Amino acid sequence: MAKTAMIMNPMGAVRRLRGAIGNHTRLWRTNRKAQLKDGLAQAEGAMRAAVVRLNRTHGRTRILVVDDLVPDPLLGAGYPRAFEVVWAMIRSGLHVDFYPMESNDHDIARMARAFEGQVRFHSGQGSAGLRRLLWKRGILFDLLFVSRPTPMQSLLETGWTSPRTAVIYDAEAVLAPREALRLALLDTPMSHTDQETALADELSLARSADVVTAVSPRDVSMIEKVLDVPVFVVAHPVGVKANTPGFEGRRDLLFVGRLSGLASYSANVDSLRWFLTEVMPILDELIGDSYRLHVAGLLEAPELDPLISDRVVCHGVVEDLSPLYDQCRVFVAPTRFAAGIPLKVVEAMGQGIPCVATPLLGEQLRADASVLPTGESAPAFAQACQKLYTDAAAWKSVQERSATYIIQDHSQEAFEKALAGALAVAIGHHEIGSAKY
Fold first, then answer.
1. Taking the model in full, what pTM does it have?
2. Cα–Cα distance between 167 and 135 in angstroms, integer?
């Protein structure tokens, strides 16, 4: 009888959630820094219980994920994280639908196999397809998880809303600072006012969302300055590989990234070109030219063609990077403009290969030089590479500290807790907000 009463009185269920949700929301509003460090762990049990109760009373089991492309880890650019997000949703018991803004039949079939048939993929037909899906079947979804600006803009343009559907905007990475860095490299810097305007315009898309998620604390801090909604760090989960080869069993350098388009727009193309033309000649003077640079990833950048030599080994798209991680001694990430966090660096750390990066990436990861040696200028970057490539003790120290960093900041457990908290707060925030009307 009590269970029947809960089903017949959904607003009563909402009121019973106020204690579970309200404490967490107040904690977020009054002490955001403490929330990031301690609040999620304290509220986790209440949040999970809230989701369970809503599942039982309202059948809240369906979520629609919307993104630019299918969540294929081989695409890079945040899609390895998207892949993990979808799997975490499946493990939590949610019924997941996925709408890519662009796709083809091959993409859909391959991803359906990758998720073992547990995700319903819809054919990507742009904004018009999203509009049709939502107006025809949107009422069936209890949550929308919308990643990146273009899909969120498309959602807003549909004009579709539902009193029973909560919306999470997954900013993934805040793009405005990346654009400012890119333009500065081209000697066309943005003014401070233009940068603030670009950031406000980008984040204005999320004003109607119940919750916002992002990949790094740095991005969360920027979002919180603009939006008055709960914001969660949902980072990229990485495991730490055990029993990897030691210093003496390795040689060469490794670069991983999708290389397509022009260096003036592609951070990966720009970074590899800079390494090959500016850093590598200096490194040759420091350690000789017996090493090679291995490059893994799609290569469709004509301006790199003249720079490829027998010392630059291009492997193309590699589904399993483990052999290259184990073979090479140093991973290089000479990125000069970027957003979010460098997932490839996080992956490499977890695989036991020490990395050298630019200070930009160190700041994004909040990793100091003991974890991630950096160099901003070409000479400084080459010297950091020399240190790791020739000093076994330094190499071992960075490898061990990198593993500790990954365990503390990028564990699977922390990732799933953060995502569960964001989903639960979105549900509670939306229900309580709807109850006011």
1. 0.69
2. 16
